[in-house]
Amino acid sequence: MSCARSSRALQAYLDGEVDEATARRVTSHLNGCRDCGLEADLYREIKSALARQQQPDPRAVERLYTFAESLLHTGSDPGDGGDRAPGG
């Protein structure tokens, strides 16, 4: 699974809203891709903060926005070695 495909499925995956095959592919990708794993951790942190009705860490939110913007503006698969904001 590519980084772009993983990113598109990530929120639904973390919410338990994907089928078993997709969950296995996303899990495998997150285990092997440091950058996507970090993004998943950010989503989990934000989700956890919201569940506690606290404000998420502003740095985490900024990284998430930066990552989303990079996906919109790359025009290619972020996993192909192109520039990505999170994780360097």
UniProtKB/TrEMBL annotation:
Gene3D superfamilies listed in its UniProt record: Anti-sigma factor, zinc-finger domain
Q: Where is the Putative zinc-finger domain?
A: 3-36
Recorded hits in InterPro entries, A to Z, give:
Anti_sigma_zinc_sf, Znf_put
Question: Which keywords appear in this protein's UniProt record, sorted alphabetically?
Answer: Transcription, Transcription regulation
Entry protein name: Putative zinc-finger domain-containing protein
Q: What is the lineage of its organism?
A: Bacteria, Bacillati, Actinomycetota, Actinomycetes, Kitasatosporales
